Amino acid sequence: MAGTPDNELLSSTSDQEETSMSNSRPVYSPRRINQDIRLCTITRTHEKDTYGIEITSCPIELFYSIRILPSGNKKLSNEPQNLHAALAGVKPNDRIVEINDESVDLRTLEEVVQLLQETKYPQPLILLVTNAETYDYYRHHDKQIHSKLPNVRKLSNRVEKRIVSSPLDGLRKTNSLMDLHLPKPTTTHRNIPRTSFNQIKSENSLVNVCKGDLATQNVDVIVVSSSSQFLFDSICQAGGTDFTNAYNAEVKKKPGRSLISIKADGKLTSKQVYFLPWTERFDHLMLSASIQKFVSDAITEAANDKFRSMAFPAIGCGLYGYSIDLVARTMTTEAYQQSLKHRINVSFVIQPQRMDVFETFRNQIDSIIPKQLFEVKSTTIKNGSIEVIKGDMTKQKVDVIIASSSSGFLLKTILNAAGADVSTAYNNELKNRPNAILIETPGGALFCKRIFFVKWEPNHDPQTLRISLTDMVSTVIQSAISHKFTSIAFPAIGCGNLGCSVNIVVETLVFEMKKCLLKRQLPWTVKFVIEPSQQNVYDEFWTQVSKKQDDLDQQCLYEIPSTWETSTDNKMRFELSPNTREFQEVKQKFNDAMHVLAKEIIRIERIQNERWYVQYLAHQKDFKSRLNNDTERRLFHGCPEQAANSIITDCFNRSHAGANATLYGVGAYFSSHATFSHSYANPNSNGERRMFIARVLIGKTTPGDSSMKTRPVGFDSTTDGNHIFVIYHDAQAYAEYLITYK
């Protein structure tokens, strides 16, 4: 990077981003330059002569400035410092590169001011300076100026007699170009090693940076600076003739509107393109304000249009020559604030060859994201792992994200972040399947493949709460297995404003997931994502997760029946062979109960729905503990063929409530008399009927009536007082066998 510059300055077309329509933008052309690089001095003195020195930021934050001011300047009269200094060998419009052989590239303005203020008489500071023409040449060709260059003019042994004295007035702002310029800290022209990263996405941040082509970004909106002719032409070319014509028509239709929104077309992969200008400014405050408005206006418009993702270019970092630090800091900070407000994912797309811009944006994004969002603890469970994370649920990069219908805030947050298509899909499913335990949708704008919306209700009763959480986790696990997912993110369900016991919720959720990973030896990554403000919840999750595996009660790892067959394709129906003892026992029980009503048994199928079986066993354990008695009964349930298929998949859920009768309550009906259930086993077109033999937890029962839509308080089921039993909880019964007969 260091070296003597070429004598010829060749015109460059490598900076694609900023070929301006504005006449004020610098344009480089082939010509020879007068290379003027010098070592000079600044010396503190006690004399009060006729000049002052002003330290200030250059308006576009590329340089610091020291300006020689005439004596008697009113702006200097009230300054607290009364320093006097001498400048030797410095010319108007010089730009400072080094102070005492150290580059000022990494020094802040405050550090430079302090260095000048602490200068001790008569020791001088040695300045490496150059004129504007030479500095711009080196900057444009990505070359470094330093005091070891052979063409640097060295200091004379004598100090020139031109003396200036001043108070140093620190941070005075000005809107004009300065007399002496000092490069501001910037990564613009630093040789930054290339890395393997093409995309930096912070897991918990809504703001990201990637390398690529803005036109090919798969987002809802791409934002184009209409002040950049090259970028404008590039997007219009990718959009095609119809796209360009639509833009021109919109401009004519709304000549005073700054933001022009056009539907993407051609090779553009986004849904919409926003064209809006930004104003180039010499004053760094005005420049920042212009960039902030550019970002804010675009994100606000996208939010109003219900978009959830968008991509920006890095404006001002090409031939405009503005500080990359300033641009990156302003754009990322504003984007982060607006994205939190509107829940929009924002990407900054950097040209692959501009590693300096990419690295600066990446560093700025890292610096603005709150540190607590990155707090992650994890432990290994067999082949899988469990992580406890402080962060944003909508930013988790997993196969599936879990949402609970009981948390209105979380539900709304996830739907808003996922986008309009996901919201529509969820609402349609909810309308068509109001009693569904789990609703699936695509991930939309989230970093996941699917979203599982689980129907779960909080409860203040400890036992009921544990059972409901066990049921919920089991449902999620079975659905994830069916999709062959390997990573999943849970929120801290019930730990917010629902008033549930945090200890019970956390203990149950962690226990069930540990049990799953231990028993099945799944290579899963399970994430429990906690809001950063919920430190107590985070601590409790980590306490439970970090417990030794020996602490896990192995007796609670429910065993499936020994008669069950293995399956690799989630098969749930297994036809029994007539030669087996299992077949003969089921046949005998059925024939004894049916008397002569069943003329022929066509087949008997064993139902292997592990999700519902595990939930049933959890309820059975609770019933035994609570009632100190085994209330399980094997009962019959007759139904049409279509209902039988649904029961095998979803068991006796609430969608079947009242399907056959409501005389003793609006629930799922069972009978100890197969002849009674036979009347509800309507035959199909082939004359085939279907009846289940089910394991049912009767619990504490009471006479029912048609007004009962839920179990009466203090009871588990309702009855006719003889052979009919009605249950109101999905997992209170398990369909064990399905008999098809005539």
Structure description:
The protein has 742 residues and is an alpha/beta fold. The protein has 4 domains: 33-183, Roll (Pdz3 Domain), CATH 2.30.42; 199-369, Leucine Aminopeptidase, subunit E, domain 1; 374-556, 3-Layer(aba) Sandwich (Leucine Aminopeptidase, subunit E, domain 1); 573-741, Alpha-Beta Complex (Phosphoenolpyruvate Carboxykinase, domain 3). Helices cover 29% and strands 23% of the residues. It contains 16 helices and 33 strands.
What's the CATH topology label of the largest domain?
A: Leucine Aminopeptidase, subunit E, domain 1
- By CATH, the superfamily of the largest domain comes out as Leucine Aminopeptidase, subunit E, domain 1
The SS-based structural class is: alpha/beta
Counting structural domains, the number is 4
Amount of beta strand: 15-25%
Number of strands: 33
What is the annotated CATH architecture of the largest domain? 3-Layer(aba) Sandwich
User: How widely separated are the two ends?
Assistant: 89 Å
Oligomer: single chain
Organism: Adineta ricciae (Rotifer)
Subcellular location: Nucleus
Domain PARP catalytic: 560-742
GO cellular component, one term: nucleus
